Amino acid sequence: MNILSRLRKDKEQADIALFKERMQDEAVRKVTPALIEEYEDYLLIDKEMFVTCVVVGIPTKHHNGFPRNLPPNFTSQVMAIENTDEFLIDISYQCTPISPSEAMTLLDKSMYVNRVSMAQVEKETQKETGVSIHSKRYDFQAQDFTYLFGEIYKNEQKLFDSQYIIVIRAKSRDGLRAGISSVFGVLESNVVNREIPYHRILDTFIAALPFPNVVDFAEMQQLSDSCGALLPLHDPLTQPAETGLIYGLRKADSTPYIIDWSTLAAAHHIVIGGTGSGKTVELMKLLMSGHDMLGHRFIYITPKPDSRTNFLSVANYYGDHAQVIQIGAAAGFQNINPLQVMVDSNQTLLNDSDYISLFNNHLELLTAFFSVMDTSMNMDDYIIQSLIELYRRYGIIRKDVDTWKNREGKEYPVLVDLRSIWKEDAEKKNPSAIAMLNRTSRLETSWEYINRPTDIKMDKDIIVMDLSGVPGSLQNAMNVFVTGLMSLRFNTDLTKKTCVIIDEGRVFLQNKPLTEFIMKTYTQGRSYDMSAIFTTQQASDINKDMQELFKNNSFVNIIMGNVQPNSYKGLEDFFSLNEDDMKSLKTCGVGEGLVQVRGKTTAVKFALTDLEKDVILGDWKTVKKTGLEFGFKLVDDRLKPLLSEDGIMSDWIEGDSKVLGIDHTPYYVQRAFGRGTTQIWIQPHKVQDGKIMQQSIDHYGTVLQIGAYLLQKGFKIDINHFDDADIVAELNEHTIAIEYERPGSHTKSELIDKKQRLQTTYGQVVFVVPNTYYSVVADQTCVGSENTVARGTTLEEYMAQIWQEFKP
Amino acid sequence: MESLLLRQVNEEIWGYPWYWIRNSAMYGIVAVFVPLLALIMANSLMVKGLCFLVVTGAIMTYMFYLSSPEKQSSTTKRLQYMVKAHKGKTIIPKYTTDVAFLKEVVPLEKVYPKGIVQFTWNRYGVLFRLYVPSETEGGLESFIPLVVSNFVNRIVEPQTLKVFAMNKYIQAPNVVNEVLGAMNDSSKTPEQVAHLDSVYRQLIETVAVPTQKHIYMLIGLGVFDSVEKAELALRNLLPSLNDGFALTRVTGIRVIDPNEIALAYRRCLK
Ligand SMILES: Nc1ncnc2c1ncn2[C@@H]1O[C@H](COP(=O)(O)OP(=O)(O)OP(=O)(O)O)[C@@H](O)[C@H]1O
Ligand SMILES: [Mg+2]
């Protein structure tokens, strides 16, 4: 017994193995969908994808198939048909060469048939009308054949059996219809013949796919040139899977222009644009989006006050999350002592060698700070030496990390202290010291304020550094220092990527060591987590020997519009713009421009969203409510009143309604409008014995759907779940009572009573019923057809009609 | 641009397809002439009446369904479909349908390890994935001649060239979902959410439905009695094809792994 069952088991397993093996071998089973259903005019695949085909270009008695002057971009036009949620368009073109000898035989025969037909027609017309009528048609055909013959005979072109099929796939039959009408639109405007191959859709579909199959009714003959033009080998819109930061809208088609920073080697940008061209506005837009979407930290540094674009209001908007630092001499302004080593308390993760390199970077940054004052190599060396000496005097030893890591309560030297060392050395006739003294004499006059200790804290995610209070002569150096400081400070932060925006970054673009320094800072350590956006007014701001550096290090170039004609040449050369780019640049105004990334140039309108407009261009006061209090977003804010109900229809939710799954359970209910089902989400404890508010879930769902429809049409509604009418809707002083009625809940006389009661209170009343119940309720002995409407398609029509009647 | 029906023209008589004339004649004899004869010969009034009905019916049928070549071919298709539907061959559940019939529908025979695909009737071919240029120097006017000389004219009989450009919805998160995702991130402040909401509203008005193009090219190699012969034909063709890709700046990658080939076909089929 045991053995027998074991044997049977073994056999079963062997069978399964055999079956698997066969499956492996049977490629066709692997690739075929589980269920294909072929109908007269479409296929249904796996019960979810609808497919149909259009055969293109077949000539008939009355149509040439393709017009003589078909534009070369015909296939591109078909490819450019916008795919929608509803349908997708595919193109298939096949060509099989016909040997020249066969081609010529075919043509010979055709020419013969043509001549015979011509003679026949002449003879017939002679008989009928007494004159022999010569139809030009045959002449043209003869010319065509002669031309074809010539091309093939001279071996200029080949003749092909070809086949052009467009496939439409959709999620519903309505989608198919929409797809067909889009395709027909393009074909008709090009005067191309087309036909849906009724009863043969499956064969046609397979013939469209990369199988060597053809269907005879789609076959035609064409020359090489036509094949080349019709093959779908050119993509009019390559839009990759787009995610990333939104820069604005493409000028060409108003679709969002997006760059995914994570695919760039580094997110460094250059923005070039004349004054008033919209640089600051775009920077602010990037800052807001980059912060809110990508969660990056942004530091915006500007050396000049901006009367036009209120970058401060962006900081204000973010309130506690942002910080404005105004550096300068005036009272109330803050200061950064360049000699203070900025060590973060939250950088304690670092070990000693990290600290030492932090100190080295600090020294390098100071050199950069002075380099703006035109220092030579010798002077740079001297600066380092004198700095080390200065720090030593203050008990700060680079290698002894504890001497400077935490100097709470102890002072840092300031720049005048450094100057005293230079003074000592100048007396010893050290030329570098003398030179430095000359360059920094203002430290004791107008730059005096910088000799205060650092009194800023930078712990926010958005930092706006306003350097406009810094005396002009020190501005460049301070700009460099602050930028460097920010970069050094944040490139050790492991949790957040940081982007430093330097509005008016001219000083960097003109000084090679500076640029190198800044680029190096960014590429060190946690390299790609730092990025920089430099802006400047003109391409000529960038020195010749800097151009290469920038070209290699800037991965996104933004060229703002509203360009002065005398700047054209500079931009054209610097960004290697071609003729078309220049043309579109010239049409770009304020708030528009070209964006170059990976060698591709696109004209973009830096369109702001409503809120960005309010914040960046206006003064932001309060956050408007957005309907997000509930943890999801409604498709229409007008639906908000319904959120006090105990059920939420999935159709009301933008995106995936599964977000409701945390504390709600989905139930399927009939759609009140149209066909099919939809989901209603209800908190489980609200449902008892399959009922909610003493109503069946189906009833409840129908009422909510009708309510939602009315709200979206602008009605005011009252929903009652116990007595009275289910919904009382009001628009423009008209009211209607709507009652959903299921079989078996009321008797005929109860219904008549109800109708009269509601009619006296509200004027108009309608009973919505399931299809199957319609004939009973609509009967004249009950409430009558004028007061009854079936759920589904007719309900939508009915409601639309009510809306038409009521609306002002 | 011209498209011609040279093969059909050959079978035309005075501008009408030979098959249509033949079928019409046969129909005439069987459905009209014979009953008509019976009508004349019959002596019972009943039979005469019946014959009369048959003749009128036949003529009406002819006028409705067969009176032109177009009508005739669509009628034929309809009849063929009805027969097929009657035999239950219009509903194809793959697991319970036998392979022989499946192959009649999807003509895939076998995929060889080196990426050669065998179709039914001993036809062989290879599949390529194409990445086509979106912007070509000098525009289409100069791109098309390149395609003609480097692709079209390099195909010789019995080879065949087929390009299938299809669209697929992308499942990967797109920017809209990303914005929605960011909005649902509980660490965002109301200000951030309000801003993202405004971004979202701008996006849904402007964003295109996220789709991705897949372009496949089939080179039919012809009919061979063994895969080795097909392989040889492929080897002779490949250099010229690769050359063609380079010259047109179309990137063509041959799909070699049998699993990938299966995946490609499955993607095309659904
Ligand atoms: N994308 C935009 N949408 C709407 N308006 C814009 C846009 N960009 C710029 N503007 C308008 O142009 C003005 C100037 O823009 P912005 O301050 O950004 O110029 P800028 O290039 O930074 O000039 P400057 O060099 O003087 O700083 C803005 O105040 C605004 O009115
Ligand atoms: Mg500005």
Describe this structure as you would to a colleague.
The complex is a heterodimer of chains A (808) and B (270). Chain A has 808 residues and is an alpha/beta fold. Among the domains of chain A are: 1-32; 33-230, no CATH class; 347-458, Helicase, Ruva Protein, domain 3 (Orthogonal Bundle), CATH 1.10.8.730; 637-806, no CATH class. Helices cover 40% and strands 19% of the residues of chain A. Chain A has 26 helices and 28 strands. Chain A has an 11-stranded mixed sheet, with helices on both faces. In chain A, strands 1, 2, 3, 4, 5, 6 and 7 form a 7-stranded antiparallel sheet that branches. A 5-stranded mixed sheet of chain A has the order 24-25-26-27-28. Residues 621-629 of chain A have low confidence and may be disordered. With 270 residues, chain B is an alpha+beta fold. In chain B, strands 4, 5, 6, 7, 8 and 9 form a 6-stranded antiparallel sheet that branches. Chain B is 54% helix and 19% strand. The model of chain B has no long low-confidence stretch (mean pLDDT 86). In chain B, a hairpin with a 3-residue loop joins strand 5 and strand 6. Classes of the chains: A alpha/beta (808), B alpha+beta (270). Strand 1 (35-38) of chain A pairs antiparallel with strand 3 (91-93) of chain B, so a sheet runs across the interface. The site of magnesium ion has 5 residues of chain A, from helix 9.
